[in-house]
Design goal:
Layout (H helix, E strand, L loop, with lengths): L8 E4 L5 E3 H11 E8 L2 E12 L2 H13 L5 E4 L11 E5 L2 H11 L7 H17 L3 H13 L5 H26 L4 H8 L3 H10 L1 H17 L1
Length: 221
């Protein structure tokens, strides 16, 4: 089997129904969702695909079909809400290679989500080069607001948190460039050495850029 060769029909359930890519694509078009993961408001460039259904056997059939085509997925039961007659079940595809493979298989048969799926593939392929570009992040966030995938208040909170983090990193970089240790910096700004180390490690590229900028300014002065 080649990298993206697949079985068009390769699953038979107890009812005798045979699963196919057109069926899975139609199911995903109507009951599925694709969205970019974010951690604490930071876009990650990694997408997740979900399909929601109340009938577990149907999703088990889809999962078996995907597995035979080299795509890993997981099935989770969602907590039953008050007044909800049936528990909803989620089939989730998370890892990048699995999401890419799934989207490439279903795109030829999609109607509703075709453009969104194509955009997801493009963004995943370009993300490594774009994630450090502030202009790209702002434009992507603006489109998410316009498409009503996120609210303006959420976007404002993300921008505020990013600005606050940048200010904290800049302060740490300035103190570090002056010769202070992380322990001394922690006492100065009212934090802990562990918190500072975690922050600078998590935002290593941004912190290194600030530190380099501070040192260059000192050399000019």
């Amino acid at each position: 089997m080649g990298k993206y060769h697949h079985a068009d029909i390769c699953y038979s359930g107890t009812s005798g129904f045979r699963m196919s890519w057109p069926y899975v694509a139609g199911f995903f078009d109507g009951e599925g969702c694709i969205f970019m993961n974010h951690i604490s408001g930071r876009l990650t460039g990694h997408y997740k695909v979900t399909i929601t259904q109340s009938e577990r056997p149907v999703l088990q059939g889809v999962a078996a079909f995907l597995a035979q085509n080299g795509i890993d997925s997981r099935i989770y039961g969602r907590q039953k809400m008050t007044g909800q007659r049936r528990q909803l079940i989620n089939l989730i595809i998370q890892r990048k290679e699995n999401v890419v493979k799934f989207l490439r298989f279903v795109i030829p048969y999609l109607w509703v989500k075709r453009v969104q799926a194509q955009d997801a593939l493009r963004i995943m392929s370009m993300w490594e080069g774009l994630r450090s570009n502030p202009e790209f992040r702002r434009e992507h966030s603006r489109k998410m607001v316009e498409s009503r995938k996120v609210s303006t208040s959420w976007l404002a909170s993300v921008e505020h948190k990013r600005e606050r983090t940048s200010n904290r990193l800049m302060t740490i970089a300035s103190l570090r460039a002056s010769g202070m240790s992380y322990k001394e910096i922690a006492k100065t700004i009212g934090s802990t050495e562990e918190s500072i180390y975690h922050l600078t490690s998590r935002h290593k590229e941004r912190f290194s850029g600030f530190l380099l900028g501070v040192k260059k300014n000192e050399e000019v002065v």
